[in-house]
Amino acid sequence: MILTRLILGLLNLAPMTGYDLKKHFDSSVNHFWHADKAQIYRTLAQLVRDGLATVRTVPQENYPDRQEHHITEAGRRELGAWLASPLGPDRAREPFLARVFFAGDMERAEVLELLERRRAQAQAQLAEFEAMHADLGDAAVRDRRAYLMAATLDGGIRHVRAEIEWLDSTRENLP
Amino acid sequence: MILTRLILGLLNLAPMTGYDLKKHFDSSVNHFWHADKAQIYRTLAQLVRDGLATVRTVPQENYPDRQEHHITEAGRRELGAWLASPLGPDRAREPFLARVFFAGDMERAEVLELLERRRAQAQAQLAEFEAMHADLGDAAVRDRRAYLMAATLDGGIRHVRAEIEWLDSTRENLP
DNA sequence: CTGGCATAAGTGACAAATCGACTAGGAGAT
DNA sequence: ATCTCCTAGTCGATTTGTCACTTATGCCAG
Lengths: 175, 175
Fold this sequence. Notes:
Arc Repressor Mutant, subunit A; DNA-binding; PadR family transcriptional regulator (chains A, B)
């Protein structure tokens, strides 16, 4: 359901193949969602079945034909309806916090190591997001579309930074 | 898979029925995970099948018998193994950021309203978490188990606060 | 000139998670 | 009377997530 909308959103920016979409999910969209390519192809087929997208085969030399998916009018309506729909309940899903919650039986040193491992992971992610943010042009100040896209990256960065601060504070006061 | 571990973690704190577990998922654990009762009962049955938990029927007056689930030694080992296992890749999953990312076609006022709706939701969540945090005793300073549980709530609070700050900053600079 | 990697575009099958509706009954409060 | 709480589930459909397998060319290193 949600993947349907995300893919529609991407197709609304430009026609794409499953391969193109996968690249987006691994880069530009990766700070708020992840999708496997099997999921992408499956959803794409469903979109076409439901008339929200159409396929156009674009021949290429030396490479397999591109199966370009284009959003339809119905697809645009569906996307608009999603954007305007009520916000779903916000269900946190943080496997790392879960580990910490249940880590009461671990030795102090083990807990410290767990927090350290997570910190390294978060730090790497932060560096990645900041590099992406640095690559953004200055269109993001004036153009609303570019601004909103940049804002989501900023949101991702703030989340990671908050987590790192939390990890440090948790480590410092650990009894 | 992950639910298996979370339920094992809760059973490790005290024997519980499916109903008890549901209450925990709706309160103490709700800032990092959510589970539906159908999932809980299904997982409980699976734990018993796999020998990670046992059931004891505790008769009650005026109420249905409690089907108390107790963690077994194998269950404790499984829980320990999970706590020590490598961290999985950290896949962000933020449907709200997704909306913002694709909101480029919306009117400025609509975007503002979208951000406002989210802010109200986050604010309510923050109030809820802060109330829970205030109810925590002072054991959380000395006792490691209590400390770690309190720390996860603190983590939840920091996440929500970071989001509210992001929403405000995004609103202020919206072109 | 062969083997491996990248590009390109998928398919298939299964496991796990999610969601919503339905069933069943007594106790106590408004 | 009706509503909520406590207790315990079940059923079925849809959605997600994971992993392995396929086909074919271009290009580079050894």
